[in-house]
Amino acid sequence: MTKKEIIKEVSDKTGIEGKKAEIIIEAFMSSVKEHLLRQGKVSLRRFGNFMVKKRAAKIAQNISKGTSINVPAYYIPVFKPSAEFKKAVKKTVR
Fold it and tell me: What are the DSSP calls for 25-60, one per residue?
């Protein structure tokens, strides 16, 4: 599903015109991004959590050259679905 399809579905389900639904979806996405950039956590009950996790520094191997590469620590956004969400997906998606 694309962002355009989500906007259409929200518009259809709520009766809000498409342009307003797009503004709402954009504002939601922007709020989540901004909060995660401040290394916060966004919790949506019965859906899941968006958070930022730190990946530790490591030494990787460049197989083609046979050398080692130092990979510095970095942060990555992650999503952890709620138990209820996981259970629903497990039951329906095959």
Answer: HHHHHHHHHHHHHTT--EEETTTEEEEEEEEPPEEE
Q: What is the DSSP letter of 64?
A: T
pLDDT tens column, 3-26: 999 999 999 999 999 999 999 999
26 and 1 within one domain? yes
Domain extent, residue 24, equals 1-38
* pTM, entire model: 0.77
- Separation CA 73–CA 9 (nearest Å): 39
Domain check: are 58 and 82 in the same one? yes
